[in-house]
Each structure stands twice: as C-alpha cells, then as structure tokens.
Amino acid sequence: MSHTIGIIGGDGIGPEVVAEALKVVRAVGVDFDTVEYDLGGSRYLRTGDVLPDGVLDELRSLDAVLLGAVGAPGVPAGVIERGLLLRLRFELDLYVNLRPFCLPGKLDFVVVRENTEGAYAGEGGFLRKGTDHEVATQGSVNTRMGVERCVRYAFELARSRPRRHLTLIHKTNVLTFAGDLWQRTFDAVAPEFPGVDTAYQHVDAACIYFVESPERYDVIVTDNLFGDILTDLGGAISGGIGYAASANLNPARTGPSLFEPVHGSAPDIVGTGRANPVAAILSAAMMLEFLGENAAAARVRKACAEPRVVQGSTAEIGDAVAARV
Ligand code: IPM
Ligand code: MN
User: Fold this and answer.
1) Is the four-CA dihedral 231, 94, 25, 70 of positive or negative sign?
2) What is the pLDDT of residue 306?
3) Residue that is last in its domain, among 249, 274, 307
4) CA 256 – CA 217 distance, rounded (Å)
5) The domain that contains 151 carries what CATH number?
6) Ligand 2 is a single-atom ion; what residues have CB below 5 A from it?
7) Does residue 257 lie in a domain region?
8) What's the pLDDT score for residue 144?
9) Which residues are identified as catalytic?
10) Of 45, 128, 146, 273, which one has the fewest beta carbons inside 10 Å?
11) Ligand 1 atom index nearest CA of 228
C-alpha cells in the first residue's frame, strides 16, 4: 500500500536529517509519496505565519507526518513551540509521545509520555504584569480521560513486550492533586492487565535510577513535563540525543501521527555535516511500523544498530544505513 507522508523539514539541521531519513525509507522499498510543508521559525521570520488553518487541515488528510526540527534564533520563546509543535500535538490529538531508548547490554526501555495535557496545556496567566506586584501562574491540566488513555496505551505496550513491566513516574508526594489522579487511574487500569508487573517511582528518584541502574526499566508512563525532562536524560544515557527517536501518536487513528527526533534544530552546526541523522532515521522506522510496514521498520532498526554507525558526515551515515537496508 502506498502512503502519503507530510514532510516538515523545519529549521536548522531539521531538513538535513529528514533528507537522510527519506533516503533510508526509499532504500528499504516502501511505496510512498511526500508532500513538503514549509513550516517553522524561518517561515515565521519571513512571513509571520506559524501554522495557517488551511495547512493544518491539509495535514489532517495525510497518513503520517515526518518532522526534522523547528526553532530558529531570533524567534521569541514559545512562538514556534506553542504555535506549531504543541498545536499539532493538540489539534491532531497526538496523545502519546513514545520515546524508546536502547543500548544493547545496558538498557532497553520505552517512555510513554502523555502529550496533550499537564503543564503543556497552557493554563495560567499574568496579573499586574510588569509591576512590583506581578503574579504569574502556570497550571497543570490532568483529565481522567487524558490520563486513562495514556496509561492504558502504556499497559498495552508493556503487555506486548517480553518483560511485561510498567513503571509509573510522578511526584505524588508533592503534586497531591495531579499525582493522586495519575496513581488512582493507574491502579484502576492495572487489573485489566494481570500479566503486567507494576512499580511506582518519584521523578527525582527516577533520575538517579536512570543514571545508576537503567536496566531496571521496561516501559515507563509519565506526564507531559516529567516525560520531556526524563527523555532528554534517556538520550544522554543511551549514546546521546543524536540517537533518540520519537513518535507523537494518535493511537485512535482519527488522523495522522507525527514522527520526529527528540533533538532540536541545533543552529550552531547547520550545514557542517555534523548532525547525526540516526534519530531521524529511527523516527522514520517508528513511522513505518505505525503504518503497518513492520518488516521494513525492523530492517531499518537493524541497519542502525548493528553495529551503530558512528563515523562520518550526516550524508555518509545516511548512505551507510541506506546501503545496509
Ligand atoms: C520535545 C521538545 C518540545 C517539548 C519543545 C520544543 C516544545 O523539547 O519534543 O521534547 O518540550 O515537548
Ligand atoms: Mn524535550
């Protein structure tokens, strides 16, 4: 079956790494068409547009979206993050952010990050801004529906993996409202999955375990902000952020899912050939798997892993992986 994939190269090294990912998808023999979208910080600086409604509607009809990285110097903080990346996550209901980490013999776990709520929902505001009595609040929105669908996805994933282990990470001792909802929801869903062993850890303790004994983890489920922070740490302990792939999934399949490396646009190395395209290539492998191209996905993953391609420029690494698949 042919797939129609939206390509958002974005800013900085984004277009460079996406080009290598597409090279590999082409080499593995999957039938697909691409539609390119000019979105990101550079478009914003040029035109003032972040994500026109018409473009968002076009994206809805695609089978998947592959994104490189967005964010450019000179764009105020939050414009592209909230206006493009988070808007896509919210509008396309990409409620699971899946981030796998693997370093053979050392660690092999997946973080299921809730992707549409929590601190990212944007609740809050200013009062008396700019005065000595200024107040800023920043809330965290946690709904039973939103937590439950994410937790259920994590249990299903844990059940499908050999170790069948799921850890909830939160900060229930301090975030006693949101944490309580997460813990109760987790406990309510658990009996539906009798074969899955469960654990709970506070997020601060989990940071120590990530560094000292990451082999303990199989599947982790956590809220949006903890998931953001933990997955950068996950990248750092598994060979660097240049290998960290991610999938923003709409598991209900009411629209396309979006696949992107965890790393950012790295404007300092743009055009130098030093960007590692493996995270983008592995994100494309997650896309292939979600599109049902399991054999192709497995070949891409194997080509990236055995042994890890570490030498060479962006294009040379892409060529090497493409040659292996
Ligand atoms: C990520 C990024 C984004 C996030 C930013 C760019 C909005 O850090 O995908 O992890 O915080 O989710
Ligand atoms: Mn992040």
Assistant:
1) negative
2) 73
3) 249
4) 29
5) 3.40.718.10
6) 228
7) no
8) 98
9) 120, 171, 204, 228, 232
10) 128
11) 10
From the first residue on, what is the mean pLDDT of each consecutive set of 10 residues in the chain (325 residues)?
95 98 97 97 97 98 98 95 97 98 95 98 98 98 98 98 98 98 98 98 98 98 98 95 96 97 95 96 98 97 83 93 95
Report the pLDDT value the prediction gives residue 70, as an integer from 0 to 100.
96
For ligand 1, the distance from its centroid to the CA atom of residue 198, given in whole angstroms, is 27
Q: Report residues whose beta carbon is within 6 angstroms of any ligand 1 atom.
A: 81, 85, 228, 262
What's the confidence (pLDDT) of residue 254? 97
Q: How much is the pTM?
A: 0.97
- 142 and 70 part of one domain: no
- Angle at which helix 14-27 crosses helix 314-324, to 10 degrees, equals 20
Sign of CA dihedral 204, 210, 212, 217: positive
| Cβ-based neighbours of 166, under 8 Å, separated by 6 or more | 154, 155, 158, 196, 197, 198, 199, 218, 219, 220, 221
Ligand 1 center to 139 CA (angstroms): 18
Q: Quick one: which atom of ligand 1 is closest to the CA of 232? A: 10
**Are 106 and 242 members of one domain?**
yes
Is 74 among the domain residues? Answer: yes
Measured in angstroms, how far is the CA atom of residue 95 from the centroid of ligand 1? 14
